[in-house]
């Protein structure tokens, strides 16, 4: 597990990207829609926001491809068990039909596993 300073830095980075994505009309998404990602997999508003957020924190590259090394690094901020990190990556880092759907799936699975790659709320 990383230091509290590294976790706080990741959380601040996520907040900045969240604010930037929400400030852009092309990537804005209603917060109510973001609370149930699995139910909004096909919602273009949610997809645009989640891709913006995912690219912003480095989970997806500018071309939309998953960045497995960054995903591993971010999950490892809050998950100490290497086997659990590997399991989460296998479950969440799955390319879907579009970069937007990939981003939604990625965050949805991490949330289901009670892990946020940029939050201290779920140390495992």
Automatic annotation (TrEMBL):
Alphabetical list of Pfam families matching this protein:
PBP_GOBP
InterPro entries the record matches = PBP/GOBP (IPR006170), PBP_GOBP_sf (IPR036728)
SUPFAM superfamilies reported for this sequence: Insect pheromone/odorant-binding proteins
Which Gene3D superfamilies does the protein's record reference? Pheromone/general odorant binding protein domain
Locate the compositionally biased regions of type Acidic residues: 1-11
Region: Disordered; residue ranges are 1-23
Source organism superkingdom: Eukaryota
Molecular function GO terms recorded: odorant binding
Could you identify this protein by its name?
A: Uncharacterized protein
Source organism (scientific name): Aromia moschata
Q: What is the lineage of its organism?
A: Eukaryota, Metazoa, Ecdysozoa, Arthropoda, Hexapoda
